[in-house]
Design a protein that fits this description.
Layout lengths: L8 H22 L2 H5 L9 H16 L25 H20 L9 E4 L2 E4 H27 L13 H7 L13
Antiparallel strand pairs: 1-2
Helix pairs in contact: 1-4, 1-5, 3-4, 3-5
């Protein structure tokens, strides 16, 4: 993922969230319909269930973000793990709806808002903490979605990042050579 140099944690996190949404979207697109609702075992969640939960979390946490508790009274978290959507269209609609809420809220924030206080389950968080918490939660679940998508897609899977055995090729294309340094480029 190409990154743009920034000193704004708000911009950086928003860009990273867009990247993770794209990873999840590309994984869902590749997954056969049957794989979207399949589980690995009775205690596991399907992609559809994970999407329903993540969407519910994003809607609750990021609706009226600065003015209401992030755990909305109408959220029933336990129900997010029951009766998952059954069709690709329902799954994608939930996926898009959850992300829409967080991106609209983040788009209304400024760096000056990062030190403001918001509540999540009555616990005070700085806006920066709430963003970090959302990022970690989303990345965790997108990772699950990608793992399940790859499993259920099988040999038809198309890598979302650098395919196995292709790192040296990528480094050569980027002019990095084989002796990579951790020193920042100047």
């Amino acid at each position: 993922m190409p990154t743009e140099f920034t000193t704004s944690s708000l911009k950086d996190t928003t860009d990273l969230l867009h990247y993770y949404k794209k990873l999840g979207t590309r994984a869902i697109e590749q997954t056969p319909d049957s794989g979207l609702v399949a589980t690995l075992d009775p205690e596991s969640n399907s992609i559809a269930t994970i999407v329903k939960h993540l969407s519910g979390n994003l809607r609750s946490r990021w609706s009226d973000f600065l003015t209401t508790d992030g755990e909305k009274p109408d959220r029933d978290r336990d129900s997010e793990f029951e009766a998952p959507p059954h069709t690709r269209e329902e799954i994608v609609a939930l996926w898009e709806a959850g992300w829409k809420v967080i991106f609209e809220s983040l788009g209304n924030l400024t760096d000056a808002d990062l030190t403001r206080t918001v509540l999540i389950r009555t616990e005070p968080h700085s806006v920066l903490q709430a963003i970090g918490r959302a990022f970690a939660h989303a990345a965790y679940h997108v990772g699950q979605i990608v793992y399940l998508a790859k499993h259920f897609t099988g040999e038809r899977w198309s890598s979302l990042s650098v395919p196995k055995g292709k790192s040296a090729e990528l480094n050569a294309r980027m002019g990095l050579g084989s002796n990579l340094s951790r020193e920042p480029q100047r």
